Amino acid sequence: MSQQRKAIWEADLDEELQDVDLNLAIGSYGQNDLYNDVQSRIDEATLVAVQQQMAQQAAFASIPDVVKRFIVHFHQAVLENNLAEITVAYESGWNRLTEKFYAKTEWPEAEVIAPLVNDDQIFLILYRELYYRHVYSRLQPDIDDRFHSYENSCELFNYLLNSDGPVPLQLPEQWLWDIIDEFIYQFQSFCTWRTKVKSKTDEELQLLGEGNQVWSSYSVLNVLYSLIQKSKINEHILALQEGKSTEEIAEIVGEYGVRPLYRMLGYFSIIGLLRVHSLLGDFTLALKVMENVELNQKSPFTRVTACHVTTYYYVGFCYIMLRRYSDAIRAFVSILNFILRMRQYHTRSYQYDQINKTADRMYALFAICNALSPSRLDDNIFNTAKERFGEQITKMSRGEEGIPAFEELFIYACPKFISANPPPYEDPELLQAYIDDPPVEPIQRHLSLFLSEVRAQVPVPTLRSFLKLYTSLDAKKLANFLDADEEEMVQQMMVMKQASRSISRVENGKGLLDGQTISTSDLDFVIDDNMVHIAESTVGRRYAGWFIRNTEHAQRVYDTIKSSPLPPRKVNVTQTQPAQAAPAPPRNAGAKVAWGGIKVA
């Protein structure tokens, strides 16, 4: 069409200017190929746009009809705020279609499916959230995916936080948790990928230098704190604990806090901050943000199993890094028992594998706590941990020889720590210095701190094994057992005394950081002149757990028998024919004796 217009324009020009010398009229203007270059750029841009449109049309045509119907149905459910339909589409439909059509490839891009949803930008933002989550979980994201997923997250949270009033949107709690969880996971993944400078291409180095604020720690923390502030979730939790009425709570939290969308996003952001501060290595602050959240079965986070497991995992790990092993054991025992009881329901969840992986890591952390602070344990959890990590548990009780086992379990079970400060991509000289002398990896830094605590307690298992054999013992004799002089023996005993003291939460404590100093060991001693007097406190066996487990087992057996079909009844057929004479015994047969033999006549 443009060529036709150009031809007509040239024809008109030739008719009107037949006698005019164009070179004199316009000189050399336009003769330096500038116009031709502009025209070529215009043609190229037009060609690219046409090619993109044709590619989108081809991509749209390649979408299976069942996927198109699903997207239309999903969009309609979101428009109508139909939580039941949204939940089915989110938890069942999306995953089923992923397994069938997109197990090893990307879902269609949002621009391709836009005509199906009337170019609804809000739904497209939600669709991209699912799209990039699929890329991160099933595929290998490139730098464009990482940057675009950040941009989409910013659009989503800007819509939620900066709109004029609360947005008219309702999403199931599982999806709200997954939005926060995936936001933090993509931040963690980007930070880990960003530190690997040597593997970056020149294009990636340039983009990282220009986009140094992409997935910055400040922006992630700002989102989480903004959601907490907007929803006033802490005020809501305190009002519930004080027993205020629904009307009073609504007045306190305002127009945002009364909406389930903002309330649950704010609540899940508290759990998100627990995770982010743990990844950054600030374990005290991680527990501090949880001061208003109660760790019990009635808390809102228990309604989403993945959130429930994540909360206890990070709380328990923070306690380990703060040397509060008894509190860590209590947290791990609580959640691992919950997982054992609810395992039959987890198999139905699309997050079953992730929950199992986190449970395995918590068993490893439980074994570490047991080695550092032996105490009365839940037999069921301890036996399961012994089945999975029996070799490491044995090694950890051997003093210096057990340090590699501690290191192995810690690296396996700890979070993937991140660094808050990115490499200096914007300055080539500083970047080269960073490559030549890289900083210590965050995981190695935390491992070093943890192993320093372990090495300080190396003599404790050996000393404990000797003290358990006596009620009183001469100090010199004990020193001979330890192959040490008396001064060194006293130092080891003081280490053991210190290791058996720890801060632990009280029954009705306010926050997770509150507590009082208690003795965590069942073995205590005093030194009187040259004698060591040992006292071992024995705790009676707890039979309640045994009876509960066996009662539940008996109930399951009873339910199985009750639900099984009854055996078919045997029908007695009435004999209508006359009775026939019994057949005569064989000629050579004799009468049977009592034990089944035949008595020969």
From TrEMBL:
Native species: Somion occarium
Coarse class of the protein's main subcellular location: cytoplasm
PANTHER family: EUKARYOTIC TRANSLATION INITIATION FACTOR 3, EUKARYOTIC TRANSLATION INITIATION FACTOR 3 SUBUNIT L
Organism lineage string: Eukaryota, Fungi, Dikarya, Basidiomycota, Agaricomycotina
Function: Component of the eukaryotic translation initiation factor 3 (eIF-3) complex, which is involved in protein synthesis of a specialized repertoire of mRNAs and, together with other initiation factors, stimulates binding of mRNA and methionyl-tRNAi to the 40S ribosome. The eIF-3 complex specifically targets and initiates translation of a subset of mRNAs involved in cell proliferation.
Annotated stretches, region: Disordered: 566-590
Compartments (UniProt record): Cytoplasm
Protein name: Eukaryotic translation initiation factor 3 subunit L
All copies of domain PCI, residue ranges: 331-541
Subunit structure: Component of the eukaryotic translation initiation factor 3 (eIF-3) complex.
Record Pfam families: Paf67 (PF10255)
InterPro entries from the UniProt entry: eIF3l (IPR019382), PCI_dom (IPR000717)
Keywords carried by this UniProt record: Cytoplasm, Initiation factor, Protein biosynthesis
UniProt family annotation: Belongs to the eIF-3 subunit L family.
